[in-house]
Amino acid sequence: MGSRILVVGAGAVGGYFGARMASAGHDVTFLVRERRRQQLRAEGLCVDFY
């Protein structure tokens, strides 16, 4: 297993890099505000890599 990583924010940039690190096997945690947390819990985070 990879490193434990904290990503501050899960917007366009934080979400992308956090998802890339998670797909590489790292344990990624996102630090977000309450409104964004509720949105992520309800909808999840989907990132496509081309």
TrEMBL record:
Gene3D superfamilies: NAD(P)-binding Rossmann-like Domain. Residues 5-48 form the Ketopantoate reductase N-terminal domain. This is 2-dehydropantoate 2-reductase.
